[in-house]
């Protein structure tokens, strides 16, 4: 090796890896503290464990199903719970338990996909909050407009035009969520952009992309996590609502919302057939909401602990 | 200025002790407070924040915060003990026989009601008058506390008033029930310096017009020197020294009174260094044994650390200091002469302003 | 001080100009109205754009693949598709602001006429639901705030967190099953117009109303409780006590008045939820309101009607929020400082 090759890359190497800015290190510390707080928060733990279980069921559904979820046993319709069918059968004689297990994956999948689509609002919000001015004005006005349409109704309208399918359900709820994510990201970015250290970073020649990624995003992470967690819950709720309206994922793919709707449409004078799917929907939403609350509390306490 | 002895006491506090709910059992906030307020006179209750002076004021009206209560003692108003009074009768006293003014005038007024409403409401709580009469009386009261254009101002909300004007409104509220006693808890602390003097003068004038007994709670010895007849110096929940202002300021018997005086800019001659009191007032959970002031006292001896001092009557003052009878500091002796002269000049100027103000007040009264 | 009258900006309704409108209640009110109109414009445009979501040719989607060329052309005309895109937009917005939402493809009736039939049903449901929300929310919130930490308080705080997670239609299905199907106390489905029989009108709306109120009343109660407790800790409450007012007077006159403004905002948000939730609850309880009109239209691909339903609901939400805002300006004298 010659001396040249050694000295050449050295200076950029030094300037490229400056010590992480103090704020960032603080943020990282805070996040680890947040994780620790979450793990000592009992409701959050319960929610996490339940969600892990539900995810496992979704992955290993074929191993867990006692019956074929699609097989109709027309001699055995609307049966109550028994040893053969633990949760009974539905109006076509299909095993409810198997259908619930089979429906876990589509339910979760739509929820996650919808939320991911909604997250398009995050970069928009970061830009709006950071750039301010006309961009923020226009985007803000649009998101205000979208927010004034009730979420279920908005999704309902979108499905009305796009047609029923599980992908469209996810798209519809995703579009509904975009302005919500926009708001949260915009607020966070704006409050960070006003901080003094941003001024300093800008003065030291930090480009906007870098500023956003290194300073704004870590600080917006808390509120965004809270929003994400709640958003998934909202998606589950809206998705089930669409099913009850007959606008959800079309049969025969089972989803929890669809099963609730089937039970209501075909067996309305019985309360039991509605319960398993209803309970699961509520539990799933509750898990995400609880998680969201706990994340907010954990961040709140971390902020307070810092002062 | 007037002397203390002639008139019968209006309001007497006897052995008042206050405690707060603490994590490890009750926490004593004040102990054995004795105070006397006479009609037409002003008692200053002075001390650093945390000495328990505000709690004493609140306890007298029975408006302590939920976690704080009176542990022992009496508050006698014309012979009745307010501490033992049932809530219903106490309510007639609050704002009726005793009015109170607080430190933060803007936060002490309800932001959602006009100031006129808030004064009129108090009038109606204590007097049998119609809504309309109360409204007129409220405007009159606002005029009395020298709020210009009171008719219009009565219809405005607190956020449309400056801090000083809010405090005037608070005074109007306090006077709405035609009280005999006015408790003013740091009435000028939150105000601009320029407004403070006017506020004090207003309280003084109203007192003379209405022959009010005033308890002025403050941390400012300068204020005490300016408007009070008597002063009680409070430290760590106890009255350290109480007596006529002139005596206490000219020849403080308690080292803490002396230190407080020397820490006040008004009392310090130009060019001289302002004396700060070393250390901080300890929180109620960490009060030292013996004399509570001893860790900060430059004159403390072993006796001060060992036993709590008795209260001694020396002339017209009562002192809680083991060494009060010794003629202590040259410092205080030196200052006392200065103060005497300063005080007397103060007195004369104040009297003249008072007189002119009184004439003004008489004019208002005649309308 | 602080008495400068509203300086009305020279005619312009644009956001920037409105923001410059001076202080004073009228100025604030004007600004709110202006921003509501802007929001409305955005909503109309969004509702117009919904049609762009239709995969392929909307006319084909409506009429089917085998439709004749004339039929397709007619539907295209009905949907405005025979015009350039920008003109379609301007046309739709203009007509929307003049209460013309096109013609139903299915029924060949003006959309506004169909909406006008369904609106009273949905509004009745919303009114009854908000009535329940207010009564239940205020009573529970006040009781909880009176004794923070009591069992009622803890149940309310915990319960409202759970209530938030229960989709309204689940509650609706359960209530319907228990009170209407099992116990037979109340009608299962159906709607009676108020003019025909006020009592039946109300009994038919009790269950759907309670369903919608279950969630919003929990939220209102929780907010009111928090606001009341916060207000109780304010300095001016001490003044009120020190001037000899009774506790009920302090609480119901002063604390309530100060807690009312933030609670109204919550109520406004809940109104939006109620209107959104009404769509689905109508379906559960068989009420011929906007929701049912919308679902029928979606299944029939009657696009103008779907648009109309979404638009009317959004307009309702915007209008009600504006109303809440204006009441807030009136209630909260400090608004003009913000």
Automatic annotation (TrEMBL), chain B:
GO terms for biological process: peptide transport. Pfam families: ABC_tran, oligo_HPY. SUPFAM superfamilies: P-loop containing nucleoside triphosphate hydrolases. InterPro entries: AAA+_ATPase (IPR003593), ABC_Ni/Peptide_Import (IPR050388), ABC_transporter-like_ATP-bd (IPR003439), ABC_transporter-like_CS (IPR017871), Oligopep_ABC_C (IPR013563), P-loop_NTPase (IPR027417). Residues 330-356 have a biased composition (Low complexity). GO terms for molecular function: ATP binding; ATP hydrolysis activity. Transmembrane segments: none annotated. Residues 330-367 are annotated as: Disordered. One of its GO terms (cellular component) is plasma membrane. Residues 13-261 form the ABC transporter domain. It is found in: Cell membrane. It is a peripheral membrane protein. Keywords: ATP-binding, Cell membrane, Membrane, Nucleotide-binding, Transport. PANTHER family: DIPEPTIDE TRANSPORT ATP-BINDING PROTEIN DPPD (PTHR43297:SF2), OLIGOPEPTIDE TRANSPORT ATP-BINDING PROTEIN APPD (PTHR43297). Belongs to the ABC transporter superfamily. This is ABC transporter domain-containing protein.
